[in-house]
Amino acid sequence: MKKAWITPDIRTKAQQLLARLSLEQKAGQMTQYDWGFNPINPDTGLSQRDVISEQIAQGHVGSVFNLAGAEEANRLQKLALGEDGEGVPLLIGRDVIHGYRTVFPIPLAQASAWNPALAGATAAAASREALADGVAWVFAPMIDVSRDPRWGRIAESIGEDPYLASAYAEAWVRGSQIDGDGKGNDDGDGGDGSGDGVGADTAVASCPKHYAGYGLAEAGRDYNTVDLSDRVLREVILPPFRQAVEAGALTIMASFNEVNGVPACANRYLLTTILREEWGFEGVVASDYNALQELITHGVAADEEEACLLALRAGTDVDMASGIYIRHLPRLVREGKVPESLVDEAVLRILAVKLKLGLLERPFVAPSDYATDERLPAEHIALARQAARESIVLLRNEGGVLPLSKSARAIAVIGPLADSRKDPLGCWAFDGRPDDVVSVLEGVRQAADQEAVVSYAKGCEVDSDSASGESDLAEALEAAGKADVVVLALGETFEMSGEARCRTNLDLPGGQRRLVEAVSKLGKPIVAVLLTGRPLAIPWLQEYADAIVQAWHLGVQSGHGIADVLFGDYNPGGRLTATFPLNVGQVPIYYYRKKTGRPPGGVYTSYYLDSSTDPLYPFGFGLSYTSFRYGEILCAKPRVALGEAFELSAQVTNTGDREGEEVVQCYVRDEAASVTQPLKKLVGFRKIRLKAGESEVVTFVLGEESLAIIDADMNATVESGDFTVWIGPSSAEGESVRLTVEAPAQ
Ligand code: GLC
Hints:
Elements (H helix, E strand, L loop, with lengths): L7 H12 L3 H7 L1 E4 L13 H10 L5 E3 L4 H12 L9 E4 L12 H5 L4 H16 L5 E2 L23 H15 L53 H17 L4 E3 L4 E2 L2 E2 L4 H11 L5 E3 L4 H8 L5 H11 L4 E2 L3 H11 L5 H17 L21 H14 L1 E5 L12 E5 L25 H8 L5 E5 L11 H13 L3 E7 L20 H9 L5 E6 L15 E4 L7 H9 L61 E3 L3 E2 L3 E3 L4 E9 L5 E11 L10 E10 L4 E8 L1 H4 L1 E2 L5 E2 L3 E10 L2 E10 L4
Parallel strand pairs: 1-2, 1-9, 2-3, 3-4, 5-8, 11-12, 11-13, 13-14, 14-15, 18-26
Antiparallel strand pairs: 6-7, 10-15, 16-19, 17-19, 19-22, 20-21, 20-25, 23-24, 25-26
Bound molecules: alpha-D-glucopyranose.
The site of alpha-D-glucopyranose has 6 residues, from loops.
């Protein structure tokens, strides 16, 4: 169970606050409005903000989000506190998904760094900047496991693996829940240093989302039905959320989707049975945007009143944006349709979070070194560059065309994203500004020698293949013709991934393929740099590009991160955390698939007539400018008793001529279990840095957590029998050993 953070002192203070509230004010604490949505009511001529402001003054609003800065935050806090200062401060929220004004790589990119600590650092930086603007509640991390690149929000995810997503969930929660002084909450500077992500003076609440199963929307279509077994729910979907709770997440956001017939914000099994009764979560559950209203659209509520009752009884504490709680709860309580005690429980949790964040003592925004009105904090820019570098995955490098020589005489940087400053910001960058972004072109120009001629041509449109591209194409061919090497900056705009941005075609959009084919006819070395929010299915690109660099949407330091890799100032160490399919027909495709009774291979087996079942690039894959050799796996005790752990190690050697990073991955397969098991599942990883010729012995200890399965009765248990364990560079390679957990003597 998560260590209790609601101390007796917080509980007492919350109860004292609760006692002062009217029924309407209690319902108000459970109400959150979108300040950014401000239509004018044609009948009254009043704006939505006029109405909300009046409600805030009456204490009928507990939280707002999408404000614009510290001044507005302070103004609304004054309104909430009232003349006598006795009002309850607002909890101000915002989507701080991968940065605030300093925009970091999208989460799927940061995941590719296999560096949760780095993601924790970017989350802390984002919280520092957001807190300087009055934001005390960040709607992050997004930890939905997704296996479907058609789904636009895979960009916001950590990818397909629950173990890796759990590691990131923990780091992101701890990182984002900074202390009031803007430092991490483990720095012992007043935080209780308990390392549980909730320091004594935590000032920002995280909000892991979207609980649960949102990433498995059918057909990769956003908001679509999610129907999954309790097994997949518990084996795949829930582990990152459980880790987030264990890390001390103060709030959680329920997802839009139904889970097995019941939309999450009305799903008592999810919100109360699992989250609170099994896991001991003490914090606040918020609905997603207008999700209470959508219970009517889903068809599980006949009207707002029923939606209100369903959500409250399931365990949704805060109603985001619909206003249903404030419109109906007071009356429903007075009519005896719902006990006030249920309302009190929700409000107590909300007040506890506000007390935990110090809002009652410090409702106003304090001056901060991290205010970003004028400039980005230098330390955050440096962090953004490091995060960009580590997020990049080298997918192909034939003939050693990379790294480029800085003394290259002429480099042509071509493509519709080459000079873009908006697209590298990615899909959730409300507060990012294109002027702060370093484009690919700029990064290459600044990295190349002064004498080098770096030319640019757009080459084509990214969102259409219109014939008007002829002039663009001609310009590109002219630039390429004069160059020693061509860097093609290709991919997707920032609007082609993210929420409500799903695609059925996983190819490069617009006229990009035509551009690649035309440029390739000139016979120049081609480096393709992919700026995308998702894996693409582009096997054809390998026929034209000597090198392929997966560069995602990398945030403000995109161009420098990419140039650092292209010119070898940074040796790429990224590894994929979402499988790249050969074609969209294979989707969903992910590495931890089941064996089935007929694995691919032969006529009557699980295969396709018209495609391989193998991916284009597998989970965990990525190349380097150096090379690594794995020694045999050593295991002193290959047979252990139930309850004992295996200890395995392998020596990894850098056999190349330059320093590099390797992500050493450990996978397990339970060869014969009481329920079917994946072909392999990630149970450990270690990112190591080795100088040329250097070796390191990497050790993994595999205990219950690594070996357990969820049995037919849905209990986690280690079963005796044989296991295969791999230690290697990806989910598709690596040496393995056979180990045995011995059954207890009869
Ligand atoms: C959106 C998203 C959610 C976000 C919320 C507030 O629809 O689903 O991730 O936090 O609404 O913007």
